[in-house]
Write a structure and sequence with these properties.
Elements: H1 6-36, H2 45-74, H3 83-92, H4 94-114, H5 118-134, H6 137-141, H7 147-177, H8 184-216, H9 223-250, H10 257-284
Length: 291
């Protein structure tokens, strides 16, 4: 038997990442809104369903991730459902140990989302994202003795991306429910203040990650990896262009109904592009950087 298609594995990874990022970023922004503009710290029906679904997806995708990763390492799809092989993966590999710990965190996370405790949601989803970085390409490619640098860099990359994606989800809900709220600009500013820093760190850590992974491996950079990375960068640049336009062109004119309509559309596009970026990032985690 052969190992599962990389596309299936990439889809599971993307769903898991997207779920954790949405929960982390939305929880952080909702906490900020509760202090700065409490009347806009709202969880619409759509956002509520998305967050509950994200927590369930985060739980369900962990055992699927384990099975697919085990099959990939063994080169045999049959090991996906072999209890002995799965147990050996959990017990004897760093990947398995971190995955088991992450499973415990996402179980607690699902409970936190269900009872709407935003601080616990932010802490648990953030910790789960950090654990992903422990066994990432960046951690593995770090020079001997400096693995922690790769882990910290990739963890910061994931957290910044999570704030951006999850925050956009909250803004989309606000724009749908309260587009004429008196303190809408305040809510947008609360997101933008941290988002500008998050985007800068996201780009910086992404560049460091790419350089570490490609230059740290043996052989030449793989063309497929570079192509996917290039597409990801183009999408990120498009997101940044939208974000800059929203911040400097639209927010100062927010009093106009047409501007609010355009802003709502831009936020939707930015969120959609972000989900595509997550899908590509999940695929990059499976592709060999060098050949």
């Amino acid at each position: 038997m052969t190992a599962p298609l990389p596309g299936l594995f990439a889809a599971i990874r993307a769903l898991h990442l997207a779920g954790l990022m949405l929960l982390f970023g939305s929880a952080v922004l909702l906490l900020r809104l509760r202090r700065g503009a409490p009347e806009l710290a709202i969880e619409s029906g759509g956002l509520r369903r998305a967050r509950l679904a994200s927590s369930i997806i985060a739980v369900v995708t962990v055992p699927l991730w384990l099975g697919l990763a085990t099959a990939q390492m063994a080169g045999d799809a049959g090991t996906m459902i072999d209890p002995q092989t799965l147990w050996l993966t959990l017990q004897d590999t760093l990947f398995g140990q971190m995955l088991a710990l992450r499973f415990g965190l996402v179980l607690l996370l699902a409970g936190a989302v269900a009872i709407r405790t935003e601080l616990s949601t932010a802490l648990l989803s953030g910790a789960a994202l950090i654990l992903i970085a422990v066994t990432s390409h960046a951690a593995a490619a770090s020079p001997a003795g400096f693995t922690a640098i790769g882990i910290v860099d990739d963890a910061l990359h994931l957290l910044c991306g999570g704030y951006w994606i999850g925050g956009l989800g909250v803004l989309a809900a606000i724009m749908a429910l309260r587009p004429e709220a008196p303190r809408l600009l305040k809510a947008l500013s609360l997101f933008a203040d941290w988002a500008m820093i998050a985007v800068a760190l996201l780009v910086l850590t992404g560049m460091i990650n790419a350089a570490t992974i490609i230059l740290g491996g043996e052989g030449h950079a793989a063309q497929t990896y570079l192509t996917v990375l290039g597409v990801k960068l183009v999408l990120v640049l498009a997101m940044i262009a939208l974000a800059l336009g929203n911040h400097f062109r639209l927010m100062p004119r927010l009093a106009k109904p047409q501007t609010r309509m355009i802003l709502r559309g831009n936020i939707t596009w930015e969120l959609g592009l972000g989900l595509l970026v997550i899908a590509l990032a999940a695929l990059l985690g499976l592709l060999p950087p060098t050949l």
